[in-house]
Please model this.
Amino acid sequence: MAWKTRRTQISNLAEGLVKAGALQFGTFTLPDGRESSYYINLRGILSYPGLYSLAVDSMSRLVSVKAPKANAICGVPISGLTLAAPVALSLKKPLTYARSSRQGGGRVVEGEVRPGWKVVVVDDLSTTGKTILASAKAVQEEGAEVTDAAVLIDRMEGARERLSKEGIALHCLTDVMELADTLFSMELIGERDLKAITKSVGGRQ
Model:
């Protein structure tokens, strides 16, 4: 993708996320009890067709470039499926997902997964990589191969490293630091927010 085209894409995404309230800055307590200088919740982007379309189109392009030989898409429930389903449809690939537990002794994986298939795991965000890895392992138990995962935004909190140790490459459209830099350049956030995010991810990498 041309640099100017990608810059426009990220700018539109960053601005859309802020306007939709999907990306907020301040002081937030995360579900695990940790404090964060920003908050991302992509579940609501379905209510914004333009933003949702941009996210789906961007993810479809990312998957097609980074995992061109994938036979199927595995969405991470629940929020990951909001991107994985339209991406699978766009790329004309089977969609599957892994439930959190077995019910009635049945399979964890819903949908068809064939031994030897290359499956790419798709989620909306990556933080520690735990949920992505759980889905990947469930698919691998069915005999498929998972060497790639794709997310819209990487929170830069260890997911890439964790997945890499398991032989899975993490591909992200963007990360929280790039979004913050973009919003700062557009004067949509101030220097205080930018510095807080830079500190939260351990500095510029």
About this structure: The first helix runs from residue 3 to 19. Strands lie at 23-29, 35-40, 72-75, 95-98, 109-110, 118-126, 145-154, 169-175. The first strand starts at residue 23 and ends at 29. The mean pLDDT is 90.
